[in-house]
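sanity check this fold:
=====
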Amino acid sequence: MIEVRDLSVALGARAVLSDVSLTLSPGTITGLVGESGSGKSMTALAIMGLLPDGARATGSVELDGRNLLPLDDRRMSDVRGRRIGMIFQEPMTALNPLMTIGDQVAEVLTRHHGMDRDAARAVARQRLDRVGMPGERFPLTLYPHELSGGQRQRVAIAMATADAPDVLIADEPTTALDVTTQAQILDLLRGLVADEGMALLLITHDLAVVGTAADRVAVMQGGRIVEEGATQDLFRAPAHAHTRALLAATRHQPARAGPPDAATAGRPILQVERAVRAYTLARPAPLAPHPVLRAVDDVSFTMRPGESVGLVGSSGCGKSTLTRAILGLDPLQSGRILLDGEPVTARMPAALRARVQVVFQDPFGSFDPRWRVDRLVAEPFHLTGRPCGWRDRVAQALAEVGLPPDAMRRHIHQFSGGQRQRIAIARALIIRPRLIVLDEAVSALDVQVRAQVLDLLARLRASHGIAWLFISHDLSVVRSITDRVLVMDRGRVVEDGPTDRVLDAPQSAAAVRLAQAMPRMPGFP
């Protein structure tokens, strides 16, 4: 058991945690929710002994009665992984790009138990199988860059649970996952808690995930826990105003116009015609032929100016590959893609490329960590020319996504995951393109900021006629922001229709699976 008592953390003169107390009991799941920057991740880092340099922590973090706060890094390294495991929020930065996934999962076992490499890799294979990465599709020799965002998160979960720790801290473990994989992972975590008696601290901004999985929930605001209780009771009758605000934001629906009239919308902004993108895979045996994976398989659809289209599907279905092709970052083997009637290629002119921008799934990986935020947000101006008063444009873009102007002078590592994603959205908006591709653009945002960003997207669509291709695993977000939805499965579009019809009465097996796997909060329809 871990008991956190009166934990306070200060960075210089700024208090980031104040008198936080939590009890993590064996066999229970405790949810920790709150807005971005409320102190959720800092609480986890304090428990793990991973606070940044210069941080001062007071209070206690007791594991079986032993206070972990005074331990040096050498003694804490014996606790991490063996007694306490952690799943970090951004899998690409948590995984070593130079090591195979098999060696990374096995490393926990060789480090703490002295297993030989073959025995540790055999256990690693079992753990990867358990998180939905079977050996026939995901050999141990793969590297993180060869996986999708959701698949990388599953590797991170396998690493954290490889040694069956007593306490598992999961910091946004399902943020990058589609709803069917999310349901599997939540079932897996619940099974680990029940079978192995571990205590689980589930940190997330997704209240529906907490409502589905957690026994108890604590709500954070401004570095403090403002309310705590049994999940069902707290969601049905919240006592604190901040908890009520979070629940209201979860139900928020932005005011938006209906779909554009096809008769008056003019030339399509985007045309995808029989697109095929295939990859040659490694040989299964020395003399066997190379298998071919058709990640995008004969996909066709059209988008009108000002239209908002959702693209949904399970992890690995081809959504991100199709996105790269639309952006001119991945060549097609056959078919074509037209933007404003002009072909999309790797060498398309800057004026054409400026008409489409993108918000990537991994906010940290999409920024140069050496640049300050003003330079990061202003980066698209290289396509149009940097205007006079560009810093005012940057400040305006940051304000539109809820960040203060002084954020311009900071580096990206100084922000939380949700704040980084807001900066990515500001960068995409700054040159007012005609089409923005949002690849899981709000998955890292807390519910209140998500509501603000969805309102912003709706306003920009109405005022500037921007079209959105919205790629997401969160069907509630897709319902609130899109007119039409495309469902992908194994590289093909298997369903295409008005959003409400597809989500309420799905026709394809893939859409049915997505709708059934969507988590729902207690007391909500």
